[in-house]
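Regression test case RT-17, inverse folding.

Input:
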């Protein structure tokens, strides 16, 4: 989405929105093993190549992928630095669950 000032909406760069879609998460999973072409990625899905390209565009805009051209092929590579935002958010829940489980353990051991 482009605003009236011509700037991209922050929604387009939102890592959480980018990874909310199961197809995009599956694409990220595939790219963990190394760079792949759009053709190679699309062959693993029942979706059309243009649909996969749209998903890759969302992931790229969110900063999760880098793209380069090799001949006529678009090659995508995982750029996991953007996932630090998600990891930071999850850290709060790790602390919460760690404390909750410790409290539960103490409670159960008293009985």
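Golden output:
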């Amino acid at each position: 989405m482009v605003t009236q000032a011509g700037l991209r909406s922050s929604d387009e760069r939102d890592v959480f929105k980018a990874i909310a879609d199961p197809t995009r998460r599956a694409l990220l999973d595939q790219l963990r093993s190394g760079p792949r072409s759009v053709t190679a990625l699309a062959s693993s899905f029942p979706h059309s190549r243009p649909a996969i390209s749209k998903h890759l565009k969302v992931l790229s805009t969110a900063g999760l992928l880098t793209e380069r051209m090799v001949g006529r092929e678009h090659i995508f590579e995982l750029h996991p630095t953007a996932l630090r935002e998600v990891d930071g958010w999850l850290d709060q829940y790790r602390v919460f669950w760690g404390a909750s489980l410790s409290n539960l353990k103490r409670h159960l051991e008293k009985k």
